[in-house]
Amino acid sequence: MIDVFDIQKSDVDDLDVVVDAFSPGHDPSEASQHVALAKHLVDLVKGSDKPRLFFILGAASLNIGGGRRLIDRLEGLPNKEQFIATPRAQSEEYAFLTSVKAANWVAISPSSNFVPGELAPYELGHNDLLRNEAGKSEVTSGTVGKVIVDEIVHPTHQNERFTVVNK
């Protein structure tokens, strides 16, 4: 098994895209690895357009209106310590990415409800939590997979994050 933190520049030099779909698991003490891996990958490709880094984030850093992000709402929930480490870490990961200028990257934040399912009609956005006509902020894994492949094959986002919701 390869440890993602052992990846070297020579391992990625010939690649067009590196997709970071890393999950350290459910141990809250490991959530900071999201940020550590993002920094490691950026350091590997800094100053080069290739490979392009594609980060799969969570929804916590998306804006929900009134100058607030979803993480702000999550911080107010009871028993948050049971789940909040990953949303905090992925919000920090996104904050780090917004400061990166010397690497070619893109990130996707799925809707707040990321569920298994087939490809469905969808709508793209940038930094705001999207809701469909029924008021749901939900996206299926099939939709997210399609959107990721489309962005890899036909890049339209440069050094920014985007989001998706099923219609």
Supply database-style keywords.
Rrf2-linked NADH-flavin reductase, NAD(P)-bd_dom_sf, 5-stranded mixed beta sheet, globular, Rossmann fold, 167 residues
How large is the count of helical segments? 5
What number of domains? 1
The CATH superfamily label reads NAD(P)-binding Rossmann-like Domain
* Shape by Cα distribution: globular
- Second-tier CATH architecture: 3-Layer(aba) Sandwich
Per the CATH scheme, the topology name is Rossmann fold
**Portion of residues in helices?**
25-40%
- N-to-C CA distance: 39 Å
What is the number of E strands?
Answer: 9
What's the overall average pLDDT, rounded?
A: 95
| Structural class by secondary-structure content | alpha/beta
**Rg computed from alpha carbons, rounded to a whole number of angstroms:** 16 Å
Q: Strand sequence of the main sheet, in spatial order?
A: 1-2-5-9-7
Low-confidence stretches: none
Helix and strand string, N-terminal first? HEHEEEHHEEEEHE
Q: How much strand?
A: 25-35%
The CATH class is: Alpha Beta
Sheet with most strands: 5 strands, mixed
Care to give the gist of this entry?
The chain has 167 residues and is an alpha/beta fold. The protein is 30% helix and 26% strand. It has one domain (4-166): Rossmann fold.
